Amino acid sequence: MEGLELLLETLGDGRFVDAVLTDRAGDRRVRIRPVDLARGRMVQFETTVDGATSVANVEPVEMPDRVALLLDDGYRSVFVRLTDRSEQFTVTKRGRLLRTVHAGANTSSDTSHDRQPDRSVPEDAPFLVALGLTDRNGRIKPSSRDKYLQVVRFVDILDTTLDRFSVGDSVEVVDLGCGSGVLTMAAHHHLASRGLRPRTVGVDLKSDLLGRLNATVDSLASTETGWGDLRFVSGSIADWVPETSPEIVIALHACDTATDDALAGAIAWGSKVVLAAPCCQHDLQAQLDRRDPPLGFASLVQHGIVRERLGDLLTDTARADVLAARGYRTDVIEFVAGEHTAKNLMIRAVATGRPDTDAAARLDDLMTRWGVRPAIIDRLDGIGA
What we know:
The protein has eleven helices and 14 strands. It is an alpha/beta fold. It is globular, with a radius of gyration of 22 Å. The strands form two sheets. A seven-stranded antiparallel β-sheet has the order 4-3-2-1-5-6-7, covered by helices on one side. The longest helix is centred in the C-terminal third of the chain and has 22 residues, at 304-325.
């Protein structure tokens, strides 16, 4: 693979701290770092797949072959930290490794074996402290552990979508239906940590909560740079109009057709990245209740809970195909672990500029066979997008 030697040279650099490999879907993650064991210096491969983590410590001489095998197995992004800089390697469609060098962060290498797992969002991140998720010792409070893991998962997914941006780029971001603002702040914090210059807006109807969030942002801005470019405003997703078209649109657990408002807006604005985790979905469900199912599918509508989940799946399938037909590389992945909520899917879309005609055909077939019209179609028609 062209560029592999340069990657291996970086991993073998004496200033190497760690590296994280992720696949395109974001479902698999491997962290590589040097560790000092009783038998000497080793290289640790910490692999996480579907939430399950395994660890293997290997001789340094074995690292190049293992890394090459991971790239052959579908891993497409490698983020490498060194003590004086960081480097991003991305596999192109032609199988080349493209390299981007990020500004230095003076990171120290910790080669101890018995240590807390390193996550994309440190537990003592200032915004987590300011929001009360972290105690005075810099550790996440037990009551906030699930929320923290959701933050980490979200940031890991967001990170897989950033190949279109370069260090120093100004990035317009909106979080539609931002709620408590934790994930809004997490997105802003992570984009800044990647060397980007985010300008972020959180939109929600809870004006009293937004006032407290803006006060928290002002407090952070008084001690750290970058937070002054984050603000929270009151408004509905359907009515919000951006001053500048956002390049990243986030809509996590917006209720029912509010998700369609967000997706239609993102398409109309020409956003580069869309991350949407739908919540309750009643619109298409109500349409199913009024119609007979296609021949051979009657058993899927006999039981209420099955019919409800069928409505959810058809809704999100239609949304994904609409995005793909409008020129986005789109997939539907798990966001929150299933044991926490049944509403655990996320639609991830990255603009390619190449409309998928097969997706458009699938969408037409779904609408015809089931006799439904997804709300996102009406939203797009309403804004002429």
